[in-house]
Each structure stands twice: as C-alpha cells, then as structure tokens.
Amino acid sequence: MNDARAVPLIFGGEPLSADRARRMRWTATGLLVAMAVLFFTTHGLLGNHPAWGYVNAFAEAAMVGGLADWFAVTALFRHPLGLPIPHTAIIPQNKDRIADTMAQFLRENFLTPAVVARRMSGMNVARAVGDFLMASPEGSGPDTRSRITGGAAELLAEVLESLDPDRLGNQVRSGLAGQLAKLDISPLAGRMLESAMTDQRHLPLIDGIIRWAGLTLEDNEETVKEIIHKRANAVLRWTGLDERISSSVLDGLYKLLAEVLVDPDHPLRYKIEEGLEKLSQDLQHDPVTRERVEEMKRDLIENPAVAEWWMGVWERIRRSLIRRARESDSGLGEEMRKGLADLGAALSKDERLQLQINRFARRTAVGIATRYGTEIVTLVSETVKRWDATTITGRIESAVGRDLQFIRINGTLVGGLVGMTLHFITSFL
C-alpha cells in the first residue's frame, strides 16, 4: 500500500478538499490583485477629494497585509516564487522532525498507561456494548443483532469451507484426545457412581439391567437349550429329559429376574449394590483398578477405528454447520440472535457483570499501551518519514489550505482597516 494514500486519513482530508482549497486560494489571490489595482487607481485621485485618501490607504494597507500573509502561508509548504529564502518550505524540510514530534506527542498524551486508565475509568464499555446489541432501528429494516448474526454465520460458513476438513478434524480430535489423556477418568467415574448410589439414582440402572437380561435371555432361548443339550449325557438325550431340564432352567431364570425386578429387598439386589459400591471405591482408591481404566482409556484413544469414527462424525458436523449457517430458516440465526439479545440485556442491566468486563477492558487497554505503545508510535513516525515530501505537502495543504486562505483574506481586510484607521488619525495630526 502506498504510504501517501494514508495521509488523508491522518489529516482528515476529504475527496473535494483539494478543489475547495484551490478555489479559496484563487479567491484570496484575486482579492489581493483587486487591492493592488485599487491602490494604483486611487493614487492619482488623492487631490480630488479627501475620501480617496481613505480608499487609497485602505488599499495600500490591505495589499501589504495580503502580501505578508501570502508569504507566511506559502512559506509553510514551499519557497515563495521558487526563491530559496531561509526558513521557508518549513514542512518539506522538517518532515522527519515533524514525524518524530507527532509520534512523541501521541506517546506522551494518548498511549501512556495512566492516560489510558483514566480515560477507560470513565467509560462503561460493557453497557455500551449491551445497548448496541439491543439496539433496533425504526422501520422494517434488520436490527443490529440480525446484521451481526448474518455476517457471523456467513463468516463461519466460509471458514469451515476454506479450511482443510481432514486437517481440521485431526486437529480437533488431537485436542480432544489431549484433554482426555490429561483427565483422570477413574476417580471421576467412582465419585459419580458413589453419588448416584447415595441419591438412589442407581435403582433405574439396576432395573434396566434386569430387563435387558430378561430380553437377552428371551432372544437366546434356543442357544441356551442347545448348550444344555450338548452338555447332557446320552441317557438324558435319549429320554428327552434334557428338554425338560432346559425348560426348567429358563423358567427358573425368568422367575428369578421377575422376583428381583419387583422386590426392592431381594438379596440379589443387595449383591448387585454391594458390587457397585465396591466398584466405586476401587475406581477411586484401588491403584490396580485405576491403572486398568487408564489403560482402557489409552487403548480407546489410540484405536484407529475410533479415529475413523470421529472423522465421520466431524464431517457430518461440519456440513451441518455450513448448511445451517447458509440457510436463513435453519434456526441457527435465530438462536444466535436470542443469544446476543440475552447477552445485551445482561450487559445493560447486570452491574456486577459490567464491573468485571469494564475492569477487564481497562486492564487490556492499559496492557496494550504498556507493551505496544512504543511500537505504535514508532510505526507512526516511520510511516510519516517514508512519505514523499511533495506528496505530504500537497495532502496537508489540501486538508488545511482552505483555512489558510481565509487567513490571507482576513489579513487583507484587517490590514486595509488598520491602514484606513491610521490615515484617519494622521489626518488630524
């Protein structure tokens, strides 16, 4: 990027400022020429009437004042009439010193931690953000939240499309695997099981296990009968007693499961609870059990089948997010708008949250000023130094030249009034 293009942004330039400054320069110059013509025209009429003396004095002083101000204004940017007069073309010849002075002024008055902290202490950043998120323009146009969520959704879709799906999925999987590897699952599972048993939340689990055992037994009756048939001797098979034994075994198992299911005080339930209680204690305190659980966790993390399964899950998640982000009726935008509305309401009304966020914003701004203040002012100084002298002169002149031409006009008129006043005073001496 050309550095000169950034100058209007620094000095407040606008597209038509150069033309406006040029018009004012011609106006000031035209006024100066008019005073010169008036002076020479009225010089020969001084003896005809006393009034011509006042006009001539006004024109003479106005011409002198206009010339003096023209010289002063021109000397800021270039040599008047191209003559290398000392102490002219001030801005081009002192461009580097101006850059250093500007950077130092910025550093001492804006980027010191004390100044930043003082300015930030009077700002309620959290409430301002909350009001912005809750703002809705009048009429039928989209509100602030809709604009934010629309842009965020499209940005999310583009990011998910631009990134390599396999690489991103592997990075997410590696991050999850790293966090899971750091997590000690065994004590956590033990405490969860112990808490569930204390609150009697394990009872539905036991009932579910019993029902599952009954359904499994029902689905595998033929397998049980075949096992009993193979293990029975030839006499039992010849007499058909193996069929009766297998039926009796199945009936006994069904009856046992039914009794356990309906009787909360069944001895088998106590045995199951004792086993669960022992398991919860072993998970928390038994080194052997904990090591086994950790080994199972490591095997699960390193299993290629799990990695392949995760990649499939991740790809479905990615495509679903892209589709929901692009579809206006997917509900994602509405969910984001509700979230932003809740956030805006919280930031606008919750004073404790405002205090925390404002403190964080103030510390962040002070930290940036402390760590990067020197780099910022150095960037400003070096950028201004790289600007071409002719370009920066033209840019500054176009930005403030209109006001400088007003100085020339005022100098011409004020000088004329002073000259006429002096002529009035001397006429009575």
- How would you sum up the major sheet? none
Number of strands: 0
Alpha carbon gyration radius: 45 Å
Q: What overall form do the CA principal axes indicate?
A: rod-shaped
What does this structure look like?
- With 429 residues, the chain is mostly helical.
- Among the domains are: 3-107 and 385-426, no CATH class; 180-315, no CATH class.
- The chain has 20 helices and no strands.
- It has helices spanning 7-11, 17-43, 50-77, 90-93, 95-109, 113-121, 125-134, 144-162, 165-182, 185-198, 203-219, 221-231, 234-239, 241-262, 267-285, 287-302, 304-326, 332-349, 351-386, 389-426.
- Helix 2 packs parallel to helix 20 (389-426) and helix 11 packs antiparallel against helix 14.
- The relative contact order is 0.17.
Task: Set down the secondary structure blueprint.
Blueprint: H1 7-11, H2 17-43, H3 50-77, H4 90-93, H5 95-109, H6 113-121, H7 125-134, H8 144-162, H9 165-182, H10 185-198, H11 203-219, H12 221-231, H13 234-239, H14 241-262, H15 267-285, H16 287-302, H17 304-326, H18 332-349, H19 351-386, H20 389-426
Helix pairs in contact: 2-3, 2-20, 3-20, 5-19, 6-19, 7-18, 8-17, 8-18, 9-17, 10-15, 11-14, 12-14, 15-16
What does this entry show, briefly?
This protein has 429 residues and is mainly alpha-helical. Among the domains are: 3-107 and 385-426, no CATH class; 180-315, no CATH class.
